[in-house]
Design brief:
Blueprint: E1 13-26, E2 29-41, E3 47-48, E4 51-54, E5 58-67, E6 70-80, E7 85-89, E8 92-94, H1 102-113, E9 123-125, E10 149-157, H2 160-166, E11 170-171, E12 180-186, H3 187-193, H4 197-211
Parallel strand pairs: 5-10
Antiparallel strand pairs: 1-2, 2-3, 2-4, 5-6, 5-8, 6-7, 6-12, 9-10, 11-12
Domain Nudix hydrolase: 54-207
Keywords: Hydrolase
Protein name: Nudix hydrolase 14, chloroplastic isoform X2
């Protein structure tokens, strides 16, 4: 909030207090944080809504595999307790360290959730194509959560056997409660096959970048 483009920087608002309401630890580090920030608009004297679920930065990867003239997207299916449903979504995960290694985290998540090894040099940061004023990331729910997501694109040519082996594959880190099933979906049907905001945002960025010739060959 006190950064270059933070809401407190112009001086029109003031922070009175922060009340920590809940903490979930991931081992020895803070995983999730729930707090309430009392922020006043100086002109009106009114409080700005400030209930926050803090989980930090994350990454997701749109994997497109071309096989026998068809392009496929690779998704994961997981039980998502907050929405009470099984969701088809892009392989994704939180940044595990403080080094800011977004690409490395993305590659690691794909290995854990899909069982594929991705070449770092073939990763394209789609969110980096956004205007610099955005910070180069997307915010799926800025009204209540600080999560900011970097979306990556990975494209490769594979044989039909690879597609068959991926379809229905069971993966995930069982010790972390990850019970994941892999799904391979024709890319042209992807936008109707998922309610995952990460996937739909990645499709939009990919299509616009492709239309404007911003993607590497």
């Amino acid at each position: 909030m006190q950064g270059v483009k933070g809401i407190l920087t112009p001086g029109d608002m003031s922070l009175k207090q922060v009340l920590i309401q809940g903490v979930d630890m991931f081992g020895k580090r803070v995983g999730f944080l729930k707090f309430k920030a009392d922020i006043l608009d100086k002109e009106t004297g009114k409080k700005i809504p400030g209930i926050v679920f803090s989980r930090g930065p994350a990454v997701a990867v749109l994997i497109l595999l071309e096989s026998e003239g068809e392009t496929y997207a690779v998704l994961t299916e997981q039980a998502r307790v907050p929405v009470g449903k099984f969701i088809l979504e892009l392989p994704a995960g939180m940044l595990d360290d403080d080094n800011g290694d977004f690409i490395g985290t993305a590659v690691r998540e794909v290995e854990e959730e899909i069982g594929m090894h991705l070449n770092l040099d073939d990763m394209v940061n789609l969110t980096a194509l956004l205007d610099p004023s955005t910070g180069g990331r997307v915010f799926p729910s800025p009204g209540g959560c600080d999560e900011e997501i970097s979306l990556f694109l990975y494209r490769s040519r594979v044989d039909s056997e690879t597609i068959s082996k991926l379809q229905g594959k069971e993966t995930g880190l069982r010790e972390h409660g990850e019970l994941i099933k892999v799904h391979v979906v024709p890319y042209d049907k992807l936008w109707r096959a998922t309610a995952d905001a990460k996937a739909l945002t990645a499709i939009a960025l990919y299509e616009m970048a492709r239309r404007e010739g911003l993607l590497p060959p």
